[in-house]
Design brief:
Belongs to the carbohydrate kinase PfkB family. Helices cover about 35% and strands about 25% of the residues. The chain contains 10 helices and 14 strands.
Length: about 325
């Protein structure tokens, strides 16, 4: 039996309807999310056991968020009740030549108050085989960094597999600080998703330019980081949306040799959360003992399928992802 413990901030997304902008009086839609919430919910949909360490306010909003998690099968016994608010982000969906825009309103959220003191680490890690955290959580500040570091240390003590998604947000942290901070936390990881905000050596301060990198450059950097941080595997995704709004998705993994996923294309309804879906798909297959190339294909298909739903996360069975991999788009009757 495998089980994932995730730590991260719950977020509420508010998006104007019908591609409107925030500057206009408009209707809006609300979604529950946050990177680790997204991963936990997708894993639960696949049938994997997931538990979330997070914080919510003890009010109607916080209790509604908890109910959303429980209804999805995510274990909520480690939710800490403190503070007064859930973080919010506003997403204006782009259209045509107008790009999408995000604005955060997450300062003084309940999760930002959650530090490492007072937690029962024995209960937190009971039956846990995998622990996951993200660069977004680290970018929230010192309190969250201390929390993640203590959890990573506890995971290593218990020989729990540790995964780290480097998801970098330039509005939250500078490139230089991200390279310093993420490189420090990479020492705890067995699996890393992403490669740009990591230093391969002390002179490596610039962000890796993925747009100009060919497969040879990708392989060379993945191999260097794999060796530098003594990883079990490191993953990299390539995705772009063409002028017709079609998302093209491809991924690589390196575990001593380079693996390349199948390439998938799909029109995009909502791209938010597709990176989290990739992580969830990959973790799910690795937890089941599947080979890394099989996990890579499944993860790419999970990310592509996420682009077809409006929510922040994908919540489907593993069989539905398998059908995407097989190219089966017939109506299910």
């Amino acid at each position: 039996m495998t089980k994932v413990l995730l730590v991260g901030e719950p977020l509420i997304r508010i998006s104007p309807s019908h591609f409107q902008t925030l500057g206009n009086a408009c209707q809006a839609q609300l979604y529950f999310g946050g990177s680790e919430v997204n991963i936990a919910r997708t894993l639960s949909g696949f049938g994997a056991a997931s538990s979330l360490l997070t914080a919510l306010p003890d009010n109607q909003v916080g209790r509604s968020f908890e109910a959303f998690l429980r209804q999805s099968g995510v274990a909520t016994e480690h939710v800490q009740w403190c503070g007064d608010r859930v973080g919010i982000y506003y997403l204006e969906n782009g259209f045509g030549c107008r790009p999408s825009q995000v604005a955060y309103d997450r300062s003084a959220s309940s999760f930002s108050l959650l530090g490492p003191k007072g937690l029962d680490y024995g209960k937190l890690f009971e039956a846990v085989t995998h622990f996951h955290f993200s660069g977004i959580t680290l970018a929230l500040g010192k309190v969250s960094q201390d929390l993640v570091e203590q959890l990573a240390i506890e995971a290593m003590k218990r020989q729990v597999c540790v995964s780290f998604d480097l998801n970098f947000r330039s509005s939250m942290i500078s490139v230089r600080e991200a390279k310093r901070l993420f490189s420090h936390f990479a020492q705890y990881a067995d699996l890393i998703f992403g490669m740009e905000p990591l230093k391969r050596n002390q002179a490596d301060q610039a962000m890796f330019d993925r747009d100009k990198a060919d497969q040879g450059a990708v392989k060379e950097r993945l191999a260097a980081l794999y060796e530098a941080y003594h990883l079990k595997a490191i993953f990299h995704t390539e995705r772009h949306i063409d002028d017709q709004g079609v998302n093209h998705y491809l991924a690589y993994a390196y575990d001593g040799q380079l693996h390349r996923s199948i390439e998938l294309s799909t029109p995009v309804l909502q791209r938010v959360g597709s990176g989290d879906a990739f992580v969830a798909g990959c973790l799910y297959q690795l937890m089941r003992g599947q080979a890394i190339f099989a996990a890579l294909d499944f993860a790419a298909a999970t990310a592509s399928l996420k682009c077809t739903v409006a929510d922040d996360q994908l919540f489907v069975s593993a069989n539905q992802v398998d059908r995407v991999m097989r190219g089966n788009r017939e109506v299910r009757r």
